[in-house]
Amino acid sequence: MPVGYRRNLSTVFSLLTAVFVALSIVAAIYSLSALRFLSVATYDESGIAAVQLRMHYSLMLSELRHLEQSGDSATVPEAQLQYNIVYQRLRELPGRPPYDEILTKRELDLLEAVFADVRAEADRIDAATPEAPEVLYGIGERLAPNLDKIALLSGRIHQLFSEYRQHRREEISASTRFMVISTAGLILTGMIFAGLLWRSQQSLRNRTVDLERTRDELLEASRSKSQFLAHMSHELRTPLNAISGFSEMIERKAFGDNIDPRYIEYAKMIHSSGNHLISIINDVLDLSKVEAGQVVVSIKTIDLRIAINESLRLVDFRRKQNADQISVSIAEDASILHTDPRLLRQVLINLVHNADKYTPAENRIRVTSERNDRGDIVISVSDEGVGIGPEDLERVLEPFGQGRSHVEIAHQGTGLGLSLSKMLIELLGGRFELESEVGVGTTARLIFPSESPISEDQN
Amino acid sequence: MLTKRSLDLRQVRAAFLGFALVLLVVSPSPVFALDAPKGDVILTLNGKISETNGDGVARFDREMLKAIGLKSLTTTNPFETGVQQFEGVLLSDVLKMVGADGTRLIATALDGYAIEIPIEDPMTYPVLIAMVWNGQEMKVRNKGPLWIVYPVDQYDDLSAEQYSARSIWQLRRIEVE
Q1: What Å distances lie between residue A278 and A42, A282, A398, CA to CA?
Q2: A315-330: per-residue pLDDT in tens?
Q3: Is A54 at the interface with chain B, CB within 8 A?
Q4: Cβ of B154 under 8 Å from any chain A Cβ?
Q5: Exposed (0-12), middle (13-18) or buried (19+): which is A196, by Cβ within 10 Å?
Q6: B79–A43: do the CB atoms touch at under 8 Å?
Q7: CA distance A69 to chain B (A)
């Protein structure tokens, strides 16, 4: 699955999830508010209060009629009470939830008309006492025609309430449907998400397995390469020693002068080329040993004054050895170092040899050892040679780098010396730095931390 | 001597006590823990109550109820639109005063409508017997004289419909069962 396609897919699903979550929240709020409204505001959902009004109205009329027919003054308080109850009900009904919401103008007008008639009798009702029941006579007759209106009102209200309940039911079922749909959507997106996640994990696992296999193959290939190089170098060195040795014998006229001078010249070239080839092979051998982790480090305490001078002696300088041209300066506090003397010497010879090779005969080479601000011992080899351009500086430190610098080609370098030096110094727990400017010169620094992580060999 | 004198004293005390007992039994008017109402009776309690001012009943007029201590309550109400302001006595205070000992109350209105209130309601919530509604003493024509009002806005649980049904108006009598 292409990455872009997958990213689009997850964006789409994130949006879908957000939409469904929002829908669920809205549905939940909607349902909860509908339910709360049901439980509080619509206590009387069936219009019972209207039925009660009708009942109390009839009771009031019968009490008033009974009083008129029997003249029983003891029933006066009861008639007053029934009147008051009817009065209270007529008065509060229009403002009572949910009547205030449901009743139309028609019902409100009817209620108001009846209430006006009832209200008109209030003073007479209040004036009545058991001693003077006559005040109440005639009220029943005047209020009786309203019974039909109240019956109609009660019927209408019953109708309105059934419509209202139906509406509520539809609201609740709509909100429930809404919730079910959004929940189903959420579940669906969740499942698709889980599927996608599972698939991407599966492909990740496959890729990890592939990468591990590739890594193992590469490691194996690298090991084979190192082994091959070590083997080849060894095999090549033996015949090269013969070439180098016999050509040198010819060059030195070991068996007399009766030889054409041109053969001497050719033998010189064979000898020089052979030596160059041997040095390349030695570098390759060393590099492959380092890469294969086969270099044995043997740490000793060494005196740098001796080690550096010995290395200088071993270099076959092209220039005449001259105190002016090669200067050595070793600080008192930077003369003792714990390191492998053989490997350090190899690096020093390589660096001094390079300096000699790339520096015109009249310019100087300096070898110094001193401590820097942090107390590290810094051995530097500087020359006033051709220098290395910034574009080549990184490259010369890479073994078999992408391309050898023009300078190296011009001077028959192997391209391995600097990278080998760097690897060896790092193997010894130090740091290798190269600083150079074209036309000014090059400085190579070997920096050994004041507390070298490699401890001294017990041997 | 000493023994004889103390004996005399005991006899005197016994005689006095006996006289007092005779006085109590023959006393013409009974002594009740509650005062008798002076005005119109607006609330009557009966049933399982220990303190009465009549024949097994505790009758209250407006002044007696007021004397218990008026409390205010501002809340919405399922029967009215908007927030209402009530003053009245706590149902629990009235029940305490009459020494009510039952599990439920049967509340009856002037029109004969009756409902049942579990005793837990006044014990758990400050349920009010309202006498004053929005600053006016309640008359029969205005759901009076008494209205049982639940603090709906103060307790979420009380918005349930069963509490609406227990909010009886034109209250006249409470029977403790």
Answers
A1: 106, 6, 21
A2: 766 655 555 678 888 9
A3: no
A4: no
A5: middle
A6: yes
A7: 23
Hunting for tokens 């590469």 — which residue is that? A218
pLDDT at A401: 52
Is B152 an 8 Å CB contact of chain A? Answer: yes
Q: What angle do CA B60, B62, B63 make, to 5 degrees?
A: 95
What are the residues facing B43 on neighbouring strands? B60
Q: How far is A175 from chain B (nearest CA, A)?
A: 21
Beta bridge partners of B59: B44
Q: Is the Cβ of B111 closer than 8 Å to some Cβ of chain A?
A: yes
B96 touching chain A per CB within 8 A: no
Token digits of residue A269: 């070239």
Q: Choose the closest CB to A96 out of B76, B80, B140.
A: B80
Phi-psi region of A378 (alpha: psi -120 to 50; beta: other; left: phi over 0): beta
Q: Is residue A181 packed enough to be buried (19+ CB in 10 Å), middle (13-18) or exposed (0-12)? A: middle
- In this prediction, does ipTM exceed 0.90? no
Distance CA B145, CA B166 (A): 16
Of A43, A92, A96, the CB nearest to B161: A43
- Compute the distance between CA of residue A245 and CA of residue A392 in angstroms, rounded to an integer: 36
Residues of A whose CB is below 8 A from B110: 81, 84-85
CA distances from A222 to A227, A230, A236, A288 (A): 9, 12, 21, 10
Chain B residues with CB under 8 Å of A100 CB are: 81
Question: Which pair of structure tokens corresponds to residue B167?
Answer: 């909010």
Q: How far is CA B171 from CA A93, B103, B158, in A?
A: 19, 19, 20
CA distance A74 to A60: 15
| 3-state per-residue secondary structure call for A368-395 | EEEECCCCCEEEEEEECCCCCCHHHHCH
Tens of pLDDT, residue by residue over B1-48, are: 444 444 455 665 655 555 555 544 444 445 576 888 999 999 999 999
Residue B150 C-alpha, separation from nearest chain A C-alpha, in angstroms: 12
- Stated pTM of the model: 0.52
Measured between CB atoms, does B36 come within 8 Å of chain A?
no
Does A88 sit within 8 Å of B140, measured CB to CB? yes
Check CB contact under 8 Å for A92 and B143: yes
Rounded Cα distance between A353 and A367, Å, is 12
Sign of the Cα torsion A189, A195, A198, A200 reads: negative
CA distance B121 to B100: 14
Model confidence over A323-367: pLDDT tens digits? 567 888 899 888 888 899 888 888 888 888 888 888 887 788 889
Judge whether residue A109 has pLDDT over 80.
yes
- For residue B161, the chain A residues in CB contact (below 8 A) are 39-40, 43
